[in-house]
Write a structure and sequence with these properties.
The structure is a homodimer of 422-residue chains. Chain A has 15 helices and 18 strands. With 422 residues, chain A is α/β, with parallel strands linked by helices. Chains A and B meet through helix 2, strand 2, helix 11, strand 15 and helix 12 of A and helix 2, strand 2, helix 11, strand 15 and helix 12 of B.
Chain lengths: 422, 422
């Protein structure tokens, strides 16, 4: 089954927005074992749109179209598709009523231009939009099934998952059922993962994909079977095997971020944390507090950029700062212990390092990072040198810090990524 | 002049990466007043690539191609382009020598597959790659000029700016010179900006574009003139007019982020800051410290998620917390003063609020935010209600905080955005 993706809109073509719809749709198709062969974007320009629709109908079994379903003069997808294939547009009273009631619910009157959103090509199946006024639709044209969705990402993603995915699967009919999962790993490089799992990657009913999303690596097992239940059962088995083999290298599945996983573990255990950040500059705290409900387990943090802040707010001994410098093992340990004590929490975590691009010396090069974790009766610390650009350096450091919290709660060894080691 | 953009690579087509190259290239073309009519992505698949190249040659004067210039078996752009137009591939000894010396500089031997990166279609002009091993090239085919660039974003962007942009301008020949700038504004909605500047937008030799990049709005004046100097002079004049009219609503130009502007202003004045964050959770500190060299003016911060942290680390009076609650005017003022005093800095800034999705009450709804700025002898505070999703709420709050620092240094009124007001 060949698929292609069309996105429509001047704002995409002018580079005003980065088009994330295409990668989302391609990823979802891949989850059904369907390869996207073409991605095309055109302006809100009927001849270009008609040409793109006709080409899609000549070469793809599935065409996902996003954008151009709004109420303005620039929204021309429905008209262009109807013109491309010589179809009449028919007003759907039920859709019109729904749009009108949406306006009423917001205390407004529907304007006349919204009527266009209730017109669909003859033979189209209407796909309701639970989040906006623009319904989508699906229509078959020769060998090709078109799915037209709004361009607004949250509307498009929900309609893709709830309405388009089941229809594509059903349309595929006789073929095997396909199911995929995403396992999120941190701490091992892609080639090592590949090597560790090569027997699984080569087994008949499963294919194992890899993807890097710095600083993580994702595994994507995909199973084909006669029924969806069998595919799910195969996936269960494969994921169990992978988890047994990789152990704590896997931190989550699907959309679970590391900060969400850590937050949930802390909440379940009724434990609390605080952070003392130097080189990460607040990034660990920002990531933790991205999670709604983080106040249940996050007491707070200190961003101690200056030495004075390290002594005054965290109680780092002036002697340690003077003798070893701010980027040192004794200082990072004192920071972790200090923040744990000041905030009265179960776990204190600390970072100090040189994210660059300047500030390095021969003995303390740019990229050097010290991390410490303090808990009841113990402090663990380690150092690494990561030679990479500042933003990535900070992101990686924050990932190790979060991972150490997770590893502490799991009772496993606190290790860094197996790439570079001081 | 019609342009189109082609990006090539399985990783794009599988949705593994969001393709930001297309929006970058489209934006740069727009800076030369050239509209992108088509964007196409194909897999590392010669028939699809050849088809895309031929279509580009049939309809566009400029085709920007990104990706597929690497040394692996999957990198097929050069071969496919040569095949599409019946061109020989010719080894360029100078490029080969440069690739070999790059390997030597890293203490490695060049492998045989890198030789492919030194082959170019006959008649191509080679575009050196200052950051990687893959050179690009430019070649004319009928009415179309192709520019082939690597897919790696930092290599591609630099080669586009330094090598492709001047060539496109030269190739355009007789037409008017075009120059564009980007002015970054914060605090006024797009429709109000449009209204304020409508006489400029309508003047003959300038067109004024608008773009929203939450929470900012960008203005893009574009001038056409007989020579580049005249276009620049027109832009100077227009930008002066816009700046006079909008005053401190404009905070920067081009790639300057608000945190970079604020950092530069602080460094120039030799002043220092510290932040006390509750609902923003470290985001203000993170943004400030994204800037290399921020340790010159940023002493640090406290993320005071818990009430205990607010009293113990910032000296917020327990009575204020009890009487008014953590999200209140007296508390945010005490936080700003407390952090200023504890860190011994010139300016202390504080946030406390309810970013949601939960935690609101009738008198303190979700979206409520208090911000305060303390300086020598004065504390300024205000509150707003922004009904928006958590991540945007935090980002907007951090933007106001940074903007207040800028406004304090400029000696102008500390105002919030003119959208919603409590």
């Amino acid at each position: 089954m060949k698929a292609e993706i069309l996105t429509i809109g001047d704002e995409v073509m002018r580079g005003e927005i980065v088009d994330t719809n295409k990668s989302f749709l391609a990823d979802r198709l891949l989850g059904l074992d369907i390869e996207t062969h073409f991605q095309t974007s055109v302006r809100d320009d009927p001849p270009a749109m008609i040409d793109a629709f006709k080409r899609a109908a000549s070469r793809s079994q599935i065409a996902l179209v996003s954008g151009g379903l709004g109420p303005t003069r620039d929204d021309l997808t429905t008209d262009a598709l109807a013109e491309a294939f010589g179809l009449e547009l028919i007003l759907d009273e039920a859709s019109l009523e729904r749009i009108r009631s949406l306006f009423h619910a917001h205390g407004r009157e529907m304007t006349e231009n919204n009527v266009s959103q209730a017109r669909f090509p003859e033979g189209a199946e209407i796909l309701p939009n639970p989040l906006g006024t623009a319904p989508g639709f699906s229509i078959a044209q020769g060998m090709t099934r078109f799915f037209c969705l709004p361009g607004v990402p949250n509307e498009m993603t929900r309609m893709m998952d709830e309405q388009v995915m089941p229809r594509i699967e059903a349309a595929r009919g006789e073929g095997p059922a396909v199911r995929a999962r995403l396992l999120r790993t941190f701490g091992m490089g892609e080639s090592t993962l590949d090597d560790e799992l090569k027997d699984i990657a080569a087994s008949g009913d499963v294919s194992l994909g890899f993807r890097t999303s710095f600083p993580d690596n994702y595994l994507r097992p995909l199973a084909r079977a006669a029924t969806a239940e069998q595919a799910e059962a195969t996936l269960d088995r494969i994921c169990d095997t992978i988890k047994q083999r990789l152990g704590p290298l896997i931190y989550g599945e699907g959309e679970q971020t590391l900060e969400a996983v850590v937050g949930q573990m802390l909440a379940e255990r009724g434990m609390t944390i605080a952070v003392a950040e130097s080189c990460t500059g607040g990034l660990i705290a920002t990531r933790i507090t991205n999670n709604p409900g983080s106040s249940a387990y996050f007491a707070g943090g200190v961003v101690s950029y200056s030495n004075a802040a390290k002594s005054d707010l965290l109680g780092v001994p002036a002697a340690a700062l003077e003798e070893h410098g701010a980027v040192s093992d004794p200082v990072v340990r004192a920071m972790a212990e200090g923040v744990r004590e000041r905030f009265g929490v179960d776990i204190g975590i600390a970072t100090t390092g040189i994210s660059g691009p300047d500030g390095g010396t021969a003995s303390k090069p740019v990229g050097l990072i010290h991390i410490a974790l303090a808990r009841e009766g113990a402090v663990y610390a380690d150092s690494f040198v990561f030679r990479m650009e500042r933003t990535r350096h900070r992101l990686l450091t924050s990932q190790i810090a979060l991972d150490w919290i997770r590893r502490t709660l799991l009772g496993v060894e606190l290790v860094g990524p197996k790439w570079t080691r001081r």
